[in-house]
Amino acid sequence: MRAARLFFTEKLLDWNQELNNRSMPWKGEKDPYRIWLSEIILQQTRVEQGWPYYERFIAHYPTVSDLAAANEEEVFRLWQGLGYYARCKNMLAAAREIQQTYHGQFPRTHEQIKALKGIGPYTAAAIASFAFNLPHAVLDGNVFRVLSRFFGIDTPIDTTAGKKEFSDLAQELLPKDNAATYNQALMDFGAVVCKPQLPECSSCPLQKKCVAYHQQLVSLLPVKTKKLQIKKRYFNYIIASWQDKVYIRKRTADDIWQNLHEFVLIESKEAANSTALLAGAEFRQLFGAAPYKITRISKQFKQQLTHQTIHSQFINIELAQPLALPGYQLTPMDTLDKLAFPKTITTFLQSKTGLLL
Fold first, then answer.
1. Is position 39 annotated as part of the catalytic site?
2. pTM of the model
3. Which residues, in sequence order, are CB contacts of 76 under 8 Å at separation 6+?
4. Beta partners for 238?
């Protein structure tokens, strides 16, 4: 086993020096703020999608102090489209904690970094190793996959035992004096060689001692015990306008899209017929017997989240008079482009069937 571990580390670093040409704007970065920003953006987000967001955030908020002082609505608007908005909320909270507790200087120890809001073991290890070369191994999806395949480990990665086994192994493999280079190389290797689908086994420098390759287990590793359950939800948005204003609210419940804005929402258990919806009890409870005119009914819009599929329909109605809708505010339409909305709503607003921003 020791020989395999030495082979693994040596060949990985050789590959990194000779063949790794993966390019990202934060790669090799030593500023802990920029490393942290990139890691938060890349949680649940592909590199190609997160790249322009990273560059926009750096342009708007070049330092953690700038982010800490930022208007929350502006930050959420800049984040719009990335999803998982709790990341953005936690990022703001952490920036303000850094400003207040550390006077705008990013903390330099692993424990202090890990204690910040929204930072887990992987992100703390990434910042500590990349910014300060501290000996903490990163353990993300790429690392789980590479280690599982090379060493032939079939312990499920989504169990407590699996996480401990892989964490211990990753830490043992880490060259303590070269943590930053090694961690980046391992993640890059999983992204471009030992990929989830169609891994490049034929040209892999680790092939000689890879258990999964020699035992034909590549497609079976890593192992997960839990099958992802996808919940379907049906959002019916009533775009209720009066003159040049429309009713909206900020989502505050402990649910998806917290702190983002939306139109009047009626959620149904299945796809709803618009006529039946407008005649239903929930619509009447909101709008009573107030007169209105239907001006547009949209097609169905679909947004796929990790655990949920959101099906949305938009119904435009013009009111004859303003109403008191609990929780909603009558907002000028020409200010909508200053507010942050969920992706499904912005997709609608930017389509030919919606109000154009």
1. yes
2. 0.84
3. 85, 88, 259, 260, 340
4. 264, 315
Choosing from 39, 48, 262, 270, the catalytic residue is 39
Reduced to 3 states (helix: H, G, I; strand: E, B; else coil), residue 37 is helix
The beta-carbon contacts of 111-116 under 8 Å, at least 24 apart in sequence, are 113/32
The bridge status of strand 329-332 relative to strand 301-304 is unpaired
- Segment-wise mean pLDDT, segments of 10 residues, the chain, 357 residues: 92 97 94 98 92 97 98 94 90 98 97 97 97 96 97 96 96 96 97 96 97 96 88 97 96 89 96 94 94 94 91 96 94 92 92 60
CA dihedral 279→280→283→289, nearest 10 degrees, is 50
How large is the angle between the packed helices 160-173 and 2-18, nearest 10 degrees?
70
CA-nearest of 225, 226, 213 to 152 is 213
Measured between alpha carbons, how far is residue 348 from residues 132, 235, 300, 315 in Å? Answer: 44, 13, 10, 11
Find, among 291, 281, 292, the residue nearest to 239 by Cα. Answer: 292
